[in-house]
Amino acid sequence: MRKVMAGLAVLGLALTGCGTDDGGGGDRGNRGERGDGRATSAGMSWAYDEILDEGSLSDVLANGADDVWAVGTVPSGNEPLSGEGFLLHRDGTRWQRQPIPAVLGDSVHQARLDGLGSGEFLLTASVQDTTTSRTAHWDGAKWTVLPRTPGGGRVTEVKAFAADDVWALTTESRFQHWDGARWSAVTLPDGVTATSLDGVASDDLWAAGYRGTGDGTDGHEMQQPAAVHWDGKAWRLTDTPEYRYPDPVPAEPSASIARVLAFAADDVRAYGTHSFNHGEGENEPQEEAVRLRWDGARWSEVADAQGDCAERVPVARDGVGGVFLDGSRYVTGDGACTKIKRSRLPSEGGVRDGSRQSLWLSAVESVPGTDQVLGVGQVQVNQSGDPMNKAVIVSLKR
């Protein structure tokens, strides 16, 4: 199942926060939470498949066990907004480096991969100033560039069902659809602003985010969660629970959805936050997590994960009802919270035995037809006099 990309920053925790450091606990031989509410390790760990001496990896796409792609960037000197992009491809036996298509230009940033089926995919990356994006289509033999989305803005979210059925969100809160020939603007009903997309079929797509409900002067929330559904013909606003703070109401309260994950037509989950403008009053309430679930007929509130998994950002679903969370946590289908361990990097290539290491994943992906899960990102190596980062590809060991 598809991973979650940088749109999660809306929740205050970008996906690059999906990390674990040397302070993580060990394997206690059981599954779920301990009596103190902390997650336990249950035999799950990240193992290093590939370690690169330079650059960073931003996304991974698995079309099958013998067709896996990853994309990354090697910085150019000390320029943070200048980098040479590269692709990695695994044919089932080894990873091989591939060039980025020339149509994307000299500098590649925040690159993402979105599958189209039958081995085809889209590669989308920001241009050097990160204000706009370019997209190229790989058909299995050659690259073709798509026109830029109208109105500018960097592409932040993509849901693709086929080469002629692609939906995209941009930083300018614009919603676009590609029909194979052109982009067209999408207007959602009732003033809904979408921040996330997901669906299980071309006629079963969700766009979730928020709708404006006022300016806050009446003591009510300025925004409420919103989810609209595409049935292949039209968008329809669905009823979602509303959130209210009790009196005294804090300043500028609002509630919204930052991420939607579709497991099945009757199992869609939405994650967000009910918050306010902090520091404007005394005895302010606590923020609360927005957790909603669609059962095929209606949205309802559901309890947040417990203990160490509470209020964590979803990273990806695994195809068997579980959800990967930031901080290398995993929630099983029955709600148990598990911490995913990791091994240390080998003491080579400048990495010293006494270094402190943190694994930060930028994307997680299940490999179709297998029980394998892959992740890409980097290991931050903190050591006296020579700190460094190593780009890595990891696989989940259960």
Topology (elements, then pairings):
Layout: E1 18-21, E2 40-52, E3 56-64, E4 67-76, E5 79-90, E6 95-99, E7 109-117, E8 120-126, E9 133-138, E10 143-146, E11 155-162, E12 165-170, E13 175-178, E14 183-185, E15 192-201, E16 204-212, E17 223-230, E18 235-238, E19 254-264, E20 267-275, E21 288-294, E22 299-301, E23 314-317, E24 323-325, E25 329-331, E26 337-342, E27 356-366, E28 373-382, E29 388-397
Parallel strand pairs: 2-26
Antiparallel strand pairs: 1-27, 2-29, 3-4, 4-5, 5-6, 7-8, 8-9, 9-10, 11-12, 12-13, 13-14, 15-16, 16-17, 17-18, 19-20, 20-21, 21-22, 23-24, 24-25, 25-26, 27-28, 28-29
What would a concise description of this structure say?
The protein is mainly beta and 398 residues long.
Structural class: mainly beta
Order of helices and strands: EEEEEEEEEEEEEEEEEEEEEEEEEEEEE
Instruction: Extract low-pLDDT stretches.
Output: 5-18, 23-37
Biggest sheet details: 9 strands, mixed
Distance between the termini: 17 Å
- Report helical residue fraction: under 10%
Give me the side-by-side strand order of the main sheet: 1-27-28-29-2-26-25-24-23
Radius of gyration: 21 Å
Average pLDDT confidence is 86
What does this structure look like?
The chain is an all-beta fold and 398 residues long. 0% of the residues lie in helices and 52% in strands. It contains no helices and 29 strands. It is globular. The two termini are 17 Å apart. Mean pLDDT is 86; it is low at 5-18 and 23-37.
